[in-house]
Amino acid sequence: MFTHFRFWFVGIFLLSRFCSAQMMDIDYAQGKREENSFRVHFLRYGVIGISSLQHLNLTSEVTKFRFDAKKGLHLSFSVFGTSTLWAGNKKDLLNSFDYMMNPTGGRANGTFFVSYPIANKDTQNSKIGLSLGTKWIQGPVQPEFKSSSFFDNFVRTGWIHEQLLAEDALQNTSLSFWGFPHLQLHQLTQDSVSRFFNDELETVSYGYGLEMGLDYNETLKLIFIGQQLLNTIPESDLKRFVARLTVAYRF
Questions:
Q1: What's the pLDDT band for 33 if we cut at 50, 70, 90?
Q2: What pLDDT does 32 receive?
Q3: How far, in Å, CA of 55 to CA of 137, rounded?
Q4: Chain segment 47-68, per-residue pLDDT in tens
Q5: What is the distance between the alpha carbons of residues 134 and 112, in angstroms, rounded to a whole number?
Q6: How far is CA 149 from CA 42, 53, 143, 221, in A?
Q7: Is 89 left (phi over 0), alpha (psi -120 to 50) or beta?
Q8: CA–CA dist 68, 161 (Å, integer)
Q9: What is the 3-state secondary structure (H, E, C) of the chain?
Q10: What's the sign of the alpha-carbon dihedral 61, 162, 50, 242?
């Protein structure tokens, strides 16, 4: 069954190579709706990001399926593809680690996201959020013609706070802030841990993260993400805090 799942992801990757628009993995809908809605989005955002591990990335969203319930429940499934324009780090270990720690990273990335409101006011929302999925990552070249790709199964869950900072109804503009402190978990095979991470990770690695950003007029987003894994070996380079800055523009 898992083998068929991998072939499905390869198919997604081939499709994503023909797409150039990008979008974020979390959509922060505000308030309750008068009725349920289901939408399919294609190619709306252009996204570029840079990390403290010296990677400059472009991320493509192939498509997003989105359901919003009247009472505020949000469900979505998104397919991403990420290309690295520049890898300034000369350590293959850290390059593989950057691919894994990027929430929308991987040549193909299928992410399911759900959020449920726990408090709503006119200018702010609080929600519980959960995202989980799988990344197909093309890592550094391996010796003896071994496969250079691996899979990362991931989970992020935490509390989402959204705040409307400013709004001009006449000009139809707004500025919003969100924060998403969360716990995260990554699952790899033992072979992937040995070949790509020198056995410095566990097959199940856990840690924490913080995502926060500004959204101008639902057109321009500035996002900061910081993450750290906690159960690496103490002297490992993989225990470091990884920071990522991303800019997204809606076409």
A1: low
A2: 58
A3: 15
A4: 899 999 999 999 887 888 999 8
A5: 9
A6: 27, 20, 13, 31
A7: beta
A8: 18
A9: CHHHHHHHHHHHHHHHCCCCCECCCCCCCCCCCCCCEEEEECCCEEEEEEECCCEEEEEEEEEEEEEECCCCCEEEEEEEEEEEEEECCCCHHHHHHHHHHCCCCCCEEEEEEEEEEEEECCCEEEEEEEEEEEEEEECCCCHHHCCCEEEEEEEEEEEEEEEEEEEECCCCEEEEEEEEEEEEEEECCHHHHHHHHCCCCCCEEEEEEEEEEEEECCCEEEEEEEEEECCCCCCCHHHCCEEEEEEEEEC
A10: negative
pLDDT tens, position by position, 134-148: 999 999 888 887 899
Q: How many CA atoms lie within 13 A of 36 on its CB side?
A: 5
Query: Rounded to 5 degrees, what angle do the CA atoms 19, 24, 25 make?
Result: 100
150-169 pLDDT, tens digit each: 999 999 999 999 888 998 98
Q: Which two tokens stand for residue 71?
A: 């009472």
Q: Look at the block and give the residue holding tokens 């979505």.
A: 76
The residue type of 87 is A
